[in-house]
Predict the 3D structure of the following.
Amino acid sequence: MKLYGAAIAVSAFLLFLVQPIIAKMILPWFGGSAAVWTTCMVFFQCVLLAGYFYSDFMVRRMRLRSQVILHGLLLLASLAFLPIVPDAMLKPTDGDNPIGRILLLLLLTIGLPYFMLSTTGPLIQAWFAKRFIDAQVYRLYAVSNIASMLALLAYPPLIEPQSSSVEQSWGWSAGYLVFVVLTGLCAFVTYRNTATDAQGLAADTPLSLDSNTTGSKAAPSPWLQLTWWALAALGSILLLTVTTHITQNVASVPFLWIIPLIIYLMSFILCFDGRAWYMRNWYLPLTCIFGVLMLAGLMYRPGDSGWLEQGLLHFEQAVPLYCLGLFILCMFVHGELVARKPATNYLTRFYLMISLGGASGGLLVGIAAPLLTNWTWELPLVFVACLIAAAWIASGLLRTIALLAAAAGMAIAVQYAAFIQTDTIELSRNFYGTLRVKATAPDDQDSARWRLLHGVITHGEQFRSPQFRRLATTYYGGESGVGLSLQALDELQPQVGKKVGLIGLGIGTLAAYGATPDTYRMYELNPAVVDLARDKFTYLKDSKARIEYALGDARLVLEREKPQGFDLLAVDAFSSDSIPVHLITREALEVYSRHLSAHGAVAFHISNRYLDLTGVVRQLADNAGMRALRVVHDPPDTSFLYRSDWVILTRDTRMIEWLERSGKTVEIAPRESTQAKARVWTDSYNNLFEVLK
């Protein structure tokens, strides 16, 4: 039994460990978007479905000898994929929707190894059930989920901070070799030691599990199989929507991808453990309570004027609420799923329907919703669906409670939809997230502005009045770091046109500083942002500078371009809470430096609610032999400007002296003074744990 358990544990550990490893490796190629993780999850779930289908087919249609031969050949073939390092030729070359390219990249990098890992759980459990007639097979599923959770728990504190991406891929590949050996031994031992069963069937026959049952041998009805699928799909949708909700408002990094996944797996472990961890009379009312609370949490932010104000709780309230709520709701759907499990002679069909539900939920959230909807409507809808499911399953007093909760949930969901569309000029959604243009006041008022929101993060706003619409607003006022840098260039090189690069277009606010001889080159990943900046705002149209556009991930575009000779390159990609780490590494600064003029500077906009990137930028500057000057502008609350935090990197002594004379610079302490072991960030190493505020 230990051999089977070891093979299942190793496969599950590797199955989930590869997810953050490979996702983090390809994240820089696709702009650091949280949607990269969602797309990866779709791939993982679909391949898992294929693996379960393969296992179900083999168990029911193939002789044991044929199973062993076929599985062994595929295991050997999968070794050709090692080590799992993505081919640089698969990097995107434009700003088109990258979903197809991500899926192709994953297929060519880890496709067959991941497929083989996904087959292990149901297939080896089936082999185990064949050899050990009276054993509790479903306990092995709990073992599988424990190993999966250990992989996810180990990655953020132990693996990610201590090793580079390349080292992680080689370590994982070595572990995969161990898995191949263990699985091969399981196949050999099963075939060698499986004797004729009670019905007189030889070992070399299609594997029948009818002698090992935990319930009726009757075939599960289509309705029961549909119920398995629906409950599994609800769990998958909950995982992906809550993960997206959290990562779009904190940071798109593995440790925040992993927390919801750990919670999801924990619910599987407890429900499949067989020790009655799931108690309907407790979890059903808790589902009603947390379903309503999570819906209400979408529309409340303390510290503002109350309900329907901003659309999000603060981090310290939102993450605990949605993580605990995810656990409660997943315990409910997975507990009800396990309560309907079949006899073990239909074990592989049960797992197949669970996997089908997971893949269906992934495809809905990761592929269909961004293409078919203009907002993340699936988030409130899945909470409502869970409340309706609770009402459907409950009986007696619990049904009354669940019906009231479902009614309240639907009312809040309708109110949320109305809130999102209140004062909204336009809604837009694609792979990179949701965009909303919102009016702050009627257009006939002097204070009226239109604001571009990515999720709930402001990416710029502009006055509607012709009298004020050329004013630079939000983070880009004259006393901000970038505003001072542009003024310095005007004074240090009068009569000479500036060439300015901007990574992160927003609504094009910096174009307000453009003069007739200037050239402003805008690098933007999301084509929808370019369309909105041109159609709904006028900074680009009103600018006297020549405006150029480069669509696609700025890092990749700059790597392909000839030197641009920028007098200033503003990297404005970190005010959002989804951090594209690949734009703030040693290699990234080397790329930027290649595009600077002899007296050029790089301005990093590091305003952020949860991450302090000051020391990271200072360390990059020290490593590159550049001077780092920090400019913090904190206007009064009544101002149309926002608090901004910029760090200017340059080797030009004239620029340094000018900024220091302005009296606006703040000294940055060396990063090593507070973190002796802090390493400079590179493409293969970064650690956001150490910069959390």
Summary: The chain has a mean pLDDT of 84. Residues 248 and 578 are 6 Å apart (CA to CA). DSSP finds 20 helices and 14 strands in the chain.
